[in-house]
# Entry
Amino acid sequence: MTTPAHLPTDSKTLSVRIWRGAAEGNFKTYQVPRNESQTILDIVTYVQRELDPTLSYRFACRVGMCGSCAMLVNGQARWTCRTHVSRVLDQSSTLEIAPLSNMPVIKDLATDMTVFFDKWAKAKGQFKGAKSRNDDFAQVRPDSPQRRAADAGIECIGCGICYSSCDVVAWRPDYLGPAALNRAWTLANDVRDTQQLERLKAIAGDAGCHACHSHFLCTERCPKAISPTAGIAGLKKKIGRMAVKGELE
Amino acid sequence: MNEDAIAQARAWYWQRISAMVLAVFVVIHLVVMMYAIRGGLSAAEILDRTQGSLLVGVFYGLFVLACAVHVPIGIAKILQEWGGASPRVASRLSQLFAAVIVIMGLAAVWGVSA
# Structure
């Protein structure tokens, strides 16, 4: 293997710490060749293919579309496929890869995302319309305030980075979390949806949107540049006003 | 469960409204303090100005009430999230704290403005 010209000769190999085990476990150190344009996912794949085939991790598309390869890289939740090693080593001389936090670990770098997705269902994240295929299309103006509000949050691919980064999820395990609430916000702004009141009731209170402390970690870390914090703020205001007026009873 | 959630949504609303009140009151309080104390001020001089002042009584009376709404809601959340208290215990303790704020606060306001 040749070292690219711009890399110093002492950086031919990288020492990488990777979490092994489930809830109980420890970090194990691996020596991985340093390549140009190398991503964190490249490193994990190298370890599994060349050094230890028992390493478990999850990935699919490798290009930032599927959202399945999210892990903690030096303590920060990231898409490993879209994170260059050089970007992480700019800020730190060591590399540590761990499973996403706020979710149970199945094994090594793979987490159990069941609760995370159950919360989407709990937040009534399903679309329910009134029209059938025989009806004409609903017409929603692209420049209407509600369509714009929904647009701001619609690109979520459910990778779990926001949920893993959220302090409130760590403090309140029943808190629905930024991803489910972002989904609820896009639907609360969908004029075609017919279960608005049920949804707002489902996400009211401290297990719902009102527990958010606006730390903005979800917004800071979202690889799709969505701001769940903004959507949650909208939900808090809307539901808080309705609760005071008695419209949620 | 759902009634709890609605009560929590209401609590959020009143904490937000009381925060808006407090934001204005704190600014007025600080500006007045800085203006009044420029050359130093003794306790006797303060009481001389505040005693018998309806404006001072009403202003700080409302200040105390806004605190009594705002603070306990936050305390209950801190007790639950950082203290591991159950919602019931957190709610009882924060109500107690609200009572302390109202009694001590209004007693102090009465003391300086009556």
Notes: Residues 1-9 of chain A have pLDDT under 50 and may be disordered.
